Amino acid sequence: MLPDLAKRDDAIGAKAFVKYWFAVANHAIATGDTAPLAAISAKDCGSCDALAASVRKSFKDGGHIDGGALHVVGLELDPRLKPPLFRFALRLRQDPKRVLNPAGMAVTRESGASALFFVAARRVGAAFEFVGMERIDD
């Protein structure tokens, strides 16, 4: 459920919404259900589409993902942009993950990682939508 703070029409609301988006992404990673993620993502969000496609592929034919949760470690507003677009520098950490086939055998393994991104949310009417993310470190 969308937190009340994420309903605010300001930078505080945008920050809460971005954190909520990652909670919904974690739900998709854990369950394979990408519909809630699509519902709060911009239609032209390439990074959103890529994440959803990766999750769907992992769950195809009864597979699943073990681990892989995303953790927002730091989130700082870029004050140069003005509403309705809000951009943040985000430090994201992902837990180690395994993609398992229906028999429970690991198809892929990834170690945990941390990276810095720019992420953006846009106010559209009475709600925010996630616009995308771009990695800014190597």
Could you explain how this protein is built, in words?
It contains 3 helices and 7 strands. It has one domain: Nuclear Transport Factor 2, Chain: A (Roll), CATH 3.10.450. It is an alpha+beta fold and 138 residues long. Strand 4 and strand 5 form a beta hairpin. The protein starts with 10 loop residues before the first helix and ends with a strand. The model has no long low-confidence stretch (mean pLDDT 96).
CATH class: Alpha Beta
> Main sheet?
4 strands, antiparallel
Give the spatial strand order of the biggest sheet: 2-3-6-7
- H/E element sequence: HHHEEEEEEE
Separation, N- and C-terminal Cα atoms: 34 Å
Q: Give the strand content.
A: 35-45%
Q: Give helix % range.
A: 25-40%
Report the uncertain regions: none
Mean pLDDT across the residues is 96
Provide a quick synopsis of the model:
The protein has 138 residues and is an alpha+beta fold.
Topology of this protein?
Elements: H1 11-31, H2 35-39, H3 46-59, E1 64-67, E2 70-78, E3 85-94, E4 97-100, E5 106-110, E6 113-124, E7 127-135
InterPro entries: DUF6318
Protein name: DUF6318 domain-containing protein
Domain DUF6318: 2-112
Relevant terms:
138 residues; alpha+beta; Nuclear Transport Factor 2, Chain: A; 4-stranded antiparallel β-sheet; 3-stranded antiparallel β-sheet; 3 helices; 29% helix; globular; DUF6318 domain-containing protein; DUF6318
